Amino acid sequence: MSVDIKKRFDRIVNILIQLQSKRVIRAQELSDRFEVSLRTIYRDIKSLEQAGVPIIGEAGTGYSIMEGYKLPPVSFSKEEALSFVATEKLTQKFLDKESAKQYGSAMLKIKSILKNHDKDLLSTVESQIIMREQSMPPFLEQVPHALSSTLESISLQKQLVVRYQGIQDEEGRLRTIEPIGIYHDGGFWYIVAYCLYRDDFRQFRSDRIQEASLTDQNFSKKHISIAEYIEKHRQKNHPKTRIKLLVANRLANYLKWERKHYGFVSEKNIGDFIEMTFESRDIENEFPRWLMMFADFVKILEPVELKRNLTTLLQRSIENQSN
């Protein structure tokens, strides 16, 4: 079998799996996933139809398999089977208890169809992967279902009531929210939702949610997608300030771990130093407080305002320790 024919055969099989895993899938989505043209996808779909797979295609919607059509069980490669172990460990650390429990249940069903040799491989590897607990868990113990309830709220378009304690709140406050999505950053999940109390979109950090309960009340309106929200939030009245730092070579690698989070743009070597360029929306608090950890090995080239802010923070720190 030639390489091209094998690639097409593998792609058609994978398209069949995609059709089996989703109710409807668009041709463009398949084109992007397999990095081929739309014409190629149309040709592959035609081949599946000629092989007897009852595919339904609707203009502007996508492709689906006729209800009731049974496909043979899916088999997994050794590498795919081993990936299950790492993924299951990650869910135990990063998901709430209820979501992790449901994922574990789903994984048992998947493992049940594996070959005995692959089951032995998984059993051997499972004990060799250890996930250390985070110093600050992403969810409170009393809300083991915060993430799963949020996802259910999004899928059913039902309002969610949460008791949330913001960083400046003395105690938690009840909020009725309409979640549009979630994202993970810095070890925590953030729920992006329309808050009925604020009549605006807000972000709710997972470890500050003290209660969460799904209601029977439908969303009050149709909302933008989380992708649209993030793009608008990025542009909303938060101009970026360009920053240039001169960092000693021996320390530069330590900055690499977190610099993307603080707006890293580029770097270039200058002898024993590396010049790093950043773009930050907060040079009054966030950026200079991060920079304090490396201040003895870093020189601020620009802007002058950042120098002043860092100096002020350092002086306050010295005063606090001397009192």
From TrEMBL:
Keywords tagged on the record: Transcription, Transcription regulation
Every HTH deoR-type domain range: 8-63
Keyword flag Transcription: yes
Signal sequence extent: none
Pfam family, one: HTH_11
Gene3D superfamilies, alphabetized: Winged helix-like DNA-binding domain superfamily/Winged helix DNA-binding domain
PANTHER family the record matches: PROTEIN PAFC (PTHR34580:SF1), PTHR34580
Protein name: YafY family transcriptional regulator
Organism: Sphingobacterium hotanense
